[in-house]
Amino acid sequence: MPLVNAIDLVREASAKNAAVLAFVCIDYNEARAVVNAAEQTGKPVIIMLLPEYVTKYSLNGFGEFAAMVKFMAEHTDARVGLHLDHSYDEAEARWAIECGFTSIMFDASRDDLETNIRRTRAMVEYAHARGVAVESELGSVGLASERWGEKTDLFTKPDAVALFCRETGVDSLAVAIGNAHGDYLQTPRLDLERLDEINAATETPLVLHGGSGIPEDQLVEAFRRGINKFNYGTDVKRCYIHAVRDYMARHDPPRSLDVLGIPAAVQRAMTELIARKLSLSEL
Ligand SMILES: [Zn+2]
């Protein structure tokens, strides 16, 4: 079926009091694993690209990635959306829109509230004029390795949420409620009371980043209490690395044609993990 606009999946999740799962992918193997898992489970999925995967390593990949995901979506019965994860830069976000991303995250959350509102509103106007949806962030999710999930002063403040959503017109909002990106140093504890207050303050669908490592009972509860999109990445990256390492250990010393078996090995491992996580979704 045609590529689905990711925001339509988020809105459907919002209407059903559930969450759609979104996966940061860096290449064909990861995107393929996400689509495989969607086919196996019958759940819709969002495939995301983190701009850094392209820009930090001087790759020329926005358009290629968008075209690849679009092709995959058109050749499966699963519902697949495409989304650009954290873009901190206006020019980069505009370039991704040119390249075919129909949904983007524009993240000015490290600016003060007034600047965040001003920059986000301008990006929303630009994107909406082109039929593209915008996710943004209020509070700051940050890095688990730096214990951002414990920095309550950086959590999303419920009393700023209504103002921010009204002034910017964003389509979805990432919140900081004890979650953080990457590997947690200790098991996180989501501030679900804060989530209730945020959810009561706005109709805008809410997004939870930093999903790897959050206990599943807390996730299910967060989905029930207003999280409509759930970003899952670090566990999949770890699974990818382990699958490559296991494969190479089985082919030691490697012959050059052993490389042919790597995609199947890593896709199999990641598909299994992603399908298991997708079973948490009630969509
Ligand atoms: Zn994030």
What does this molecule look like?
The protein is α/β, with parallel strands linked by helices. It has one domain (4-278): TIM Barrel. Helix content is 46%, strand content 15%. The chain has helices spanning 6-15, 28-41, 51-55, 62-74, 90-98, 113-128, 158-168, 192-201, 216-224, 234-250, 262-278; strands spanning 4-5, 20-24, 45-49, 80-87, 103-106, 133-138, 172-175, 206-208, 227-232. The structure holds zinc ion (ZN). Residues 86, 141, 181, 209, 231 line the site of zinc ion (ZN). The site of zinc ion has 5 residues, from loops.
Question: In a nutshell, what does this entry contain?
Answer:
The protein has 283 residues and is an alpha/beta fold. The protein contains 11 helices and 9 strands.
Secondary-structure topology with pairs:
Blueprint: E1 4-5, H1 6-15, E2 20-24, H2 28-41, E3 45-49, H3 51-55, H4 62-74, E4 80-87, H5 90-98, E5 103-106, H6 113-128, E6 133-138, H7 158-168, E7 172-175, H8 192-201, E8 206-208, H9 216-224, E9 227-232, H10 234-250, H11 262-278
Parallel strand pairs: 1-4, 2-3, 2-9, 3-4, 4-5, 5-6, 6-7, 7-8, 8-9
Helix pairs in contact: 2-4, 2-11, 5-6, 6-7, 7-8, 10-11
Zinc ion binds next to loops.
Overall domain count = 1
Q: Rounded to an integer, what's the Rg over CA atoms?
A: 18 Å
Sheet with most strands: 8 strands, parallel, barrel
Beta-strand percent range? 15-25%
What average pLDDT do the residues reach? 95
Bound ligands = zinc ion
> Could you say which overall geometry the principal axes of the C-alpha atoms support?
globular
User: How many extended strands?
Assistant: 9
